[in-house]
Amino acid sequence: MNKQQKRKLPPLAARMLYSIAAVFLSLILATLVMLIAGYDPLKAFGAMLNGAFGSANAIANTLSKSIPLMFTGFAFAVASKGGIFNIGGEGQLYLAALASAITALALNGLPRIVVLVASILAGMLAGGAVGALIGTIKAKLRINEVIVAIMVNYIVSLFTSYMVNGPLKAENSMTAQSEAINSGYLFSTIIPRSQLTSALYLGIGFAVLIFFLFRSTRVGFNIRAVGENASAAASSGIHIAATTIGVMAFSGMLAGLAGVTEVLGKYGRFIDGFSPGFGFTGIAVAVLGSNNPFGILLTSLLFGALEAGSMKMSYVANVSTNMVMVIQGLVILFVATPEIVSQFAKRKGGKRNG
């Protein structure tokens, strides 16, 4: 019995190994789909790898596409630690993006560091406000956060769309977008002629911060305690409502940074509909990374590579870029299925015992 216990992997290592296995299984199934459809999978995956890592600019493109996924992944993981399913990342990042753009435009003429810091903070506060609203409704009114978050996503996205189609729309622009932000107020570029900016360092910094938050602080312990057993946490003196609202505010701030880094790093303005679903893809990134901040860095890189390599796969191997969505969907399916089965088994076992 002791030997078996010694051989048993730690839970985090076991989950990470399973995530790796899920990726390989998804690639195998994607290969079969390509073969059935008459495509050459070796040529397709070779082109995808070349498009994602074949040059300095390709690597920069991959890293650039992974940045917003890092932050939405962090946002979902932090909320999950507190027992909350934050599906509201999309609304949080949209309002944050708009707030950062408005701040940068309003402070035009001030020193770079002042405008950049103020714009980042404005975005984080906007995203945090949306998260706190969802957390407050859950904590005070006992309404399921998923339902609330979905409704808030629609409200926020429509509001931001109205703003850049109306009062904030750039003059003489055919596109729904704000005025361009002064280039001196944007994140600095790491690799010339690429979209990879110093926002990458911000993502890595937050990964370290989140790791130590849950590993070494009382706040992190309280969040995990509430997420694992709210009743026991309340009995030990932890304020459940305050913790729920606080963790959702922090989660919203992290999701907001996805929007901020797109505006101040990639586009230099707010553009209506700029997100292809970062808030939702971030859920898959977090789950695949086992809600571990460093695991999320790796899985966001994987998803970024799939996205960056899809275009080259399309024109070299003539395989639709939608194949990337198939691979992502298969990864999510393989990762989520055991958890669903486990939850079903627990409920079934509970009913039998009852």
Name the structural class.
mainly alpha
Query: Rg to the nearest angstrom?
Result: 21 Å
The gross shape turns out to be globular
H/E series, N to C?
Answer: HHHHHHHHHHHHHH
| Number of separate strands | 0
Could you name the ranges where pLDDT drops below 50 across 5 or more consecutive residues? none
Question: What would you say about this model in short?
Answer:
The chain has a domain at 67-301. The protein is built from 14 helices and no strands.
What does this structure look like?
The protein is mostly helical. The chain has a domain at about 65-300. Helix content is about 75%, strand content about 0%. It has 14 helices and no strands. The chain has helices at about 1-5, 10-35, 40-55, 55-80, 90-105, 110-140, 145-165, 200-215, 220-230, 230-235, 240-265, 280-290, 295-315, 320-354. Helix 4 (about 55-80) packs across helix 13, helix 8 crosses helix 9 (about 220-230) and helix 13 (about 295-315) packs across helix 14. The mean pLDDT is about 90.
Question: What are the SSEs and their pairings?
Answer:
Layout lengths: L1 H6 L3 H27 L3 H13 L2 H26 L7 H18 L5 H30 L3 H21 L33 H18 L1 H11 L1 H6 L4 H28 L10 H11 L4 H25 L4 H32 L1
Structure characteristics:
mainly alpha; globular
